Amino acid sequence: MDTIRPLSVKRFLKIGPPGYGDIRGDQERILAELSEEFGTVCFLPEIREKIYPLCRAANWEITITLIKNKNGWDLVELESGDQRHRHVGIAVDLGSTSVAMQMVDLNTSAILGEEKMLNQQIRFGDDILSRIFYGKDHRSHLKEIQETTLATLNQLLSQLEEKTGIKTKTATVTVISGNTTMIHFLLGIDAWPIFEYPFAPVFNHTGYLNARELGLGTSGYVYCMPSVANYLGGDTVSGLLMAGLHKKDELGLFIDIGTNGEMVLGNRDFLIAGAGAAGPALEGGISKNGMKASNGAVDRVVIEDNVLRVRTIGGVKPLGICGSGIVDLIAQMLLNGWIDFSGRFNSGKSARIVKRDGEYGVLYADRNESGSHEELLFTQTDMSQFIDTKAAASTMVEYLLERVGVEAAEVERLYVSGAFGTYINLESAITIGLYPDLPRERFVFLGNSSLDGAVSLLTDSEKMEEAIRLQKRIEYLEFGAADDFLSRMFASRFLPHTDFNRYPTVRDELKKRGRLR
């Protein structure tokens, strides 16, 4: 990054000590030194308490840390000596499944360390809705969820401190990017209104929060990316900061499919968005043998000469299958005729297609092949649930495009965000109809844009106003209010779709393989 305009600013001051004829208060002495550059500066109460004896012990050579607010600047830290060399911030992607955190050097924008772990909220339910129900109308339950959220964050802070050797309590500002529900839980606020009609959250924007008062093991302020709506959160706003749709003439589509599916279509002239629950299917959560992307998870599948081969994360024997593996598996079975276009297994096509407990499934690892010495199956029930999720995601895209009056082919750039989008095989995703069939060079994979957006705000304070403008500009569609949404979803339940003309490259490949005439 060429220009560093961090959210917090450090200045080293050499102040004349009080003496005869100059008996101004210590606080006023500091403020006088700052007034020309910063104008109005406010001391946080806990920082005022540090002035004496720190300033006198430091011989009035001190480093102050300031954070800009609407009315001026807040003085959030006071240190003895010149401490400008150590100026760090914390960026967080507060996901419902996992939480990622980075320590950022605010002098250079360098990433000093990164840690990731499962969100401990999972003990209140794998899906967000279970957690919302747990906290509904129960202050003690909400407190539990909040404390668990903070425990996750503080554990990551400890891990970062151990890795970098830098005390996280010296971090001057923390930016947290997460969906609307996660930020409600972070603040200990009942998220039920997000789920109940008319689906309006308690708040969209937190402003600055005091880190210590919140219970976070850092200093200074916490800033949460603003949300747009119930299912369109600050993580999407972060993603848009990285994609930059709102700055470009070309028509772009931003997609982040995980537990929820979030989509934004537009350019510098307009932004229209929608979101809905995608469920755990795309993270492997719908299958008995499904798992997160970790060691032992099948993440790649190939069928050649009617022989199924799998690859696992870590190169070990398979223990289950994650989302990218499921997408590969379904795509490969479709291309090779192991399933029909509705996802039904063709039992005579392979010995791998077996019947267990009255239900067909594909045996992607038998007892000798699996690391658990148990059969690993992807069943017809798993298939049906996955196709429901795929149908919901593709219908959301279709609905956005139709609302604007454009065809998928007119999308000049498609930005794919999130862990699932990063590791998925693009050809497989298009084959099953999860993404539109566009020229492959139009796809841009952003990775964890939620975390990257938080870092961009840490290192460029102008991004704050940009994020707030984005929040206000986006037109949000309620997919549930569309009369024909369910009928559209039904059409999308076929692989890749009932209308093969929407997927010309898939159609041509199926014809080449004799699957279509």
Structure description:
- The protein is α/β, with parallel strands linked by helices and 517 residues long.
- It folds into 4 domains: 8-80, Ubiquitin-like (UB roll) (Roll), CATH 3.10.20.880; 88-224, Nucleotidyltransferase, domain 5, CATH 3.30.420; 234-280 and 390-510, Nucleotidyltransferase, domain 5, CATH 3.30.420.40; 281-385, no CATH class.
- Helices cover 33% and strands 25% of the residues.
- It has 17 helices and 22 strands.
- The strands form 5 sheets. A 6-stranded mixed β-sheet has the order 7-6-5-8-10-9, with helices on both faces. Strands 21-20-11-12-13-22 form a 6-stranded mixed β-sheet, with helices on both faces.
- Strand 14 (297-304) and strand 15 form a beta hairpin.
- The chain is elongated and about 100 Å long.
- The termini are far apart.
- The mean pLDDT is 90.
- Oligomeric nature of the chains: single chain
Structural class: alpha/beta
Shape: elongated
**Could you describe the largest sheet, including whether it forms a barrel?**
6 strands, mixed
Uncertain runs? none
Note the beta-strand portion: 15-25%
Strand order of the largest sheet: 7-6-5-8-10-9
The helix content, as a percent range, equals: 25-40%
Overall radius of gyration = 26 Å
Tally of DSSP β-strands: 22
**How many structural domains in the coordinates?**
4
Distance between the termini: 53 Å
Mean pLDDT: 90
How many H/I helical runs? 17
CATH architecture descriptor text of the largest domain: 2-Layer Sandwich
InterPro entries: Corrinoid_activation_enz (IPR052911), Raco-like_middle (IPR041414), Raco-like_middle_sf (IPR042259), RACo_C (IPR027980), RACo_linker (IPR040506)
Organism: Acetobacterium fimetarium
Domain RACo C-terminal: 250-506
Domain RACo linker region: 4-83
